[in-house]
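Second attempt. The first submission of Dephospho-CoA kinase had a stray character pasted in from the spreadsheet, which I only caught after the job came back as garbage. Lesson logged: always re-copy from the clean sequence file. Corrected sequence (198 aa) follows.
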Amino acid sequence: MGMVLGLTGGIATGKSTVVSVFRSLNFPIVDADIIAREIVEVGKPALKKVVAVFGSEILNREGALNRKKLGEIIFSDEKKRKKLNEVLSPFLKEAILTEINDKKDQAPLVIVDIPLLYEGGYDVFVDKVAVVYVPEEIQLVRLMKRDNLSEEQAQLRIDSQLPIEEKKQKANIIFDNQNSILETKNNVQKWVTKNIFG
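This time the job returned cleanly.
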C-alpha cells in the first residue's frame, strides 16, 4: 500500500508545478478541483443542493453551473462562501476518499491535490502533508498577474484561505517555490528519490 501524500498550498503558490512533477513520474493524482467540478455537473445531487441554497440564477441557459456568477457571490460574502463549502463538503469528501482508496494500492505514492486541505480537515486522511510555499507578498503579485486581478480582488481570494505561513508551520514537507520552476522541480524529484525510491 502506497504513501498518501496530501499536497496543498495557497492560490498562486505554484502547486500545479509540483503536481506536474509527480504526474511526470506516473504517480496517481487525486485532484480535488477536478472532483469538485464533477460533483456539480448537470443532474448530479450536489448541483441540485447548491441551486436549492443559492437559487437558479447561478445556472446558465443550459442548466449548468455558471462558475463566474457563483464566484462573484461567494468571494464577496464570507457567510455565503462558508455556506457553499458546507453544502458541497459531504459530496466532495465522499468522492475524494473513494478515489484515494481506489488508487492507494496501485502505486508506492498517491498524491492528493487539495487546495483547502487544512480548511476541509483532509489532513487526517493522508499520511503526510506537503505545502508548496511562497511568502504572501509573492503570492499576491503572482495572482494579480496570473488572473489579471486588482490588488484588492487578489487579496480577497488569498484571504479566503488559511494563511500560507500557517500552512507552512503545519506541514510535514515544504516545497519552496520562490525561485525558478526548475529548482522547484529538482527539489520535488530529490524528495521522491530519497523518500519513495530510497
